[in-house]
Amino acid sequence: MYLFEGLRQQLAEYLPPDQVQRSAAAFKLAAEAHKTQKRHSGEPYITHPVAVAGLLADMRLDHETIMAALLHDVIEDTEFTREDLAEQFGSTVAELVEGVSKLDKLTFNSKEELQTENYRKMIMAMVSDIRVILIKLADRTHNMRTIGHLRPDKRRRIARETLEIYAPLAHRLGIHDIKNELELLGFYALYPWRAKLLESQVKQARGNRRELVERVRKEIETRLLDHGIQARVIGREKHLYSIYQKMLHKELHFEQVMDIYAFRVIVDEVDTCYRVLGALHNLYKPIETRFKDYIAIPKSNGYQSLHSSLKGPHGIPVEVQIRTEEMNLMADRGVAAHWLYKTEENSGTTAQVRARRWMQSLLELQQSTGNAFEFIENVKSELFPEEIYVFTPEGRIIELPQGATPVDFAYAVHTDIGNTCIGARVNHKVYSLSKPLETGQTVEIKTASGSRPNIAWLNFAVTGKARAKIRQYLKGQETREAEQLGERLLRAALGPVSYNDIKEEDFARVCGEVKIESKAQLLREIGLGNMMSVAIAKRLLGEMQQARDEQVVTNNYRSLAIKGADGLLVSFAKCCRPIPGDDIIAHVSPGKGLVIHRSECKNVRGHEEEPGRYFPVQWDNKPDDEFITEVRVEVVNHQGALAKLTSNISATGCNIHGLKTEEVDANIYYIDVALTVHDRKQLADVIRYIRKMPDVQRVARLRK
């Protein structure tokens, strides 16, 4: 139990004794379950869950989260089951552990399409209980701290996953402590050389500017004291990975990134924040366009602060963040700050309420998008965009990601407004639907009841909701059009029989035969070209059509080889070369009509499972066509053997369509002969005739 002592002291600071005891019981079970396991570093495995629980205890999380953190690898790596945990510690803890175990099975190499399904599962696990993700983030943080013990390839994979998936998630949930640590550890693990070089440059630059930083800090403190304001002033160091990202994506030189001096002023009251702002704007000249009030309008992850950029001594840019102690805690801990896990919407911190709202919007997005890839594409744009804030004509604030257009605004207000949008006015002037909006604008949407979304909107709509709703509408429209087209094609295929005369039970029977759920879906499949209208018409007409078929055939056509295939393009598969007398099945191909195969052909294996793509057919009684088939003859090679074989085949009255020879060994040859025959009986006669030849070892019909 000595490993638990440090954690026990942490928990005792904020949890009642009975909850600390329950956490101790969870530790006991975890220690027992993992007693034979070691980490890559050689330490006992139990040190990992204890460290993860410690990280969560720093955030003051509830006892159920701490217990689940201690047990998070138990289901996955030991013989204990979810039921065991539920029995001992309650269903909530068991569900949290199971949620984390499921996430452990997910692997993310990158954000590419293959990973999207896993990523979707992760987002959905988060929606069901956000504590699952908090445990996962703490688990990942501790794993990153000890990543040095892994193989280089595994280290790089985990680091990339951390930078691309987990750090943005921590950022989106406002937990900047964890986000910063994950980014730093991920940067060192993925690009060790770049990280070390940049670190040494930063140290040097900070050393050179220490004097100036101190001077600015003193001037700020003095000015605040003159105004009677008590505050903590901290020189804010730029995060190593964010310096790297700015250099990489904004194509800035190191000097350009480092010449900004950043400070944080922390006070006790919200009112004081605005007083500090006034005092600092008197001290240094503000840069006009660089002021943001995230206190009045918090960021979507609950972050609150005043941001202002000023021209300091010698014209150097000084960035200041002004916030209260509580806001500072929120900025570092986000969703996890002052944890009070309740389900009511009005409970918990701003970040928790906003996180729940964000996750609710993800749930809606999941329900309205067609597939995992679309869902993830939308979530990526939601995984922490910089926001803009615009107003409705009534003064309601709408929060949108950077780059959002009036179309995004229309869908944010209401889906119906988005679907019927025909134009926009911004600040009372006509505004293009594709032009990005800016913070502070008032947006008015013009609608018309008959209008519908335009596919071109997908080129400039950026919010997940707008993109999902546009796609959903267009898909619905395509579906309706496909259904109408399918009905028209089927009416034409039925010929003299009226579509309205077909009984619903016939439609139900055919839907059952081709394994389709409804008549509407059957018509859609025909309209989309996935099924042939003529083939479906024949199935619908069933028995009563056969007599009419035969009549039409005798009146208008020469005798067809395939019964009931009039009006259809028919071809014979080259893979199995069917001939009259063979048991056959037709593959229904919208481009090629009916392709006839032998039932035992390997290319139509499993046709029973897909009745919609196959059509039962049979040979006509009196076909007058000739068909190509192939036989393989194994002969002893000597002079004149091939000539003798061809003359014997000709004597049977068959034409040779082509032949190929292949040497098996020194004196044995395979000769594959393509013949034209009328039916199986004639083929059997030919095979018997060839078999009588003295040099022939074996002869059989060729199967490919």
TrEMBL record:
<dbReference type="InterPro" id="IPR012675">
    <property type="entry name" value="Beta-grasp_dom_sf"/>
</dbReference>
<dbReference type="Pfam" id="PF04607">
    <property type="entry name" value="RelA_SpoT"/>
</dbReference>
<dbReference type="GO" id="GO:0008728">
    <property type="term" value="F:GTP diphosphokinase activity"/>
</dbReference>
<dbReference type="Pfam" id="PF02824">
    <property type="entry name" value="TGS"/>
</dbReference>
<dbReference type="InterPro" id="IPR003607">
    <property type="entry name" value="HD/PDEase_dom"/>
</dbReference>
<dbReference type="GO" id="GO:0015970">
    <property type="term" value="P:guanosine tetraphosphate biosynthetic process"/>
</dbReference>
<dbReference type="InterPro" id="IPR012676">
    <property type="entry name" value="TGS-like"/>
</dbReference>
<dbReference type="InterPro" id="IPR004095">
    <property type="entry name" value="TGS"/>
</dbReference>
<dbReference type="InterPro" id="IPR043519">
    <property type="entry name" value="NT_sf"/>
</dbReference>
<keyword id="KW-0808">Transferase</keyword>
<dbReference type="InterPro" id="IPR007685">
    <property type="entry name" value="RelA_SpoT"/>
</dbReference>
<comment type="similarity">
    <text>Belongs to the relA/spoT family.</text>
</comment>
<dbReference type="InterPro" id="IPR002912">
    <property type="entry name" value="ACT_dom"/>
</dbReference>
<dbReference type="InterPro" id="IPR045600">
    <property type="entry name" value="RelA/SpoT_AH_RIS"/>
</dbReference>
<dbReference type="GO" id="GO:0005886">
    <property type="term" value="C:plasma membrane"/>
</dbReference>
<feature type="domain" description="HD">
    <location>
        <begin position="45"/>
        <end position="144"/>
    </location>
</feature>
<feature type="domain" description="TGS">
    <location>
        <begin position="386"/>
        <end position="447"/>
    </location>
</feature>
<dbReference type="GO" id="GO:0016301">
    <property type="term" value="F:kinase activity"/>
</dbReference>
<dbReference type="InterPro" id="IPR004811">
    <property type="entry name" value="RelA/Spo_fam"/>
</dbReference>
<keyword id="KW-0418">Kinase</keyword>
<keyword id="KW-0378">Hydrolase</keyword>
<dbReference type="Pfam" id="PF13328">
    <property type="entry name" value="HD_4"/>
</dbReference>
<dbReference type="Pfam" id="PF13291">
    <property type="entry name" value="ACT_4"/>
</dbReference>
<dbReference type="InterPro" id="IPR033655">
    <property type="entry name" value="TGS_RelA/SpoT"/>
</dbReference>
<dbReference type="InterPro" id="IPR045865">
    <property type="entry name" value="ACT-like_dom_sf"/>
</dbReference>
<comment type="pathway">
    <text>Purine metabolism; ppGpp biosynthesis; ppGpp from GDP: step 1/1.</text>
</comment>
<feature type="domain" description="ACT">
    <location>
        <begin position="630"/>
        <end position="704"/>
    </location>
</feature>
<comment type="function">
    <text>In eubacteria ppGpp (guanosine 3'-diphosphate 5'-diphosphate) is a mediator of the stringent response that coordinates a variety of cellular activities in response to changes in nutritional abundance.</text>
</comment>
<dbReference type="Pfam" id="PF19296">
    <property type="entry name" value="RelA_AH_RIS"/>
</dbReference>
<dbReference type="InterPro" id="IPR006674">
    <property type="entry name" value="HD_domain"/>
</dbReference>
<dbReference type="GO" id="GO:0008893">
    <property type="term" value="F:guanosine-3',5'-bis(diphosphate) 3'-diphosphatase activity"/>
</dbReference>
<protein>
    <recommendedName>
        <fullName>guanosine-3',5'-bis(diphosphate) 3'-diphosphatase</fullName>
        <ecNumber>3.1.7.2</ecNumber>
    </recommendedName>
</protein>
<dbReference type="GO" id="GO:0042594">
    <property type="term" value="P:response to starvation"/>
</dbReference>
<dbReference type="GO" id="GO:0015949">
    <property type="term" value="P:nucleobase-containing small molecule interconversion"/>
</dbReference>
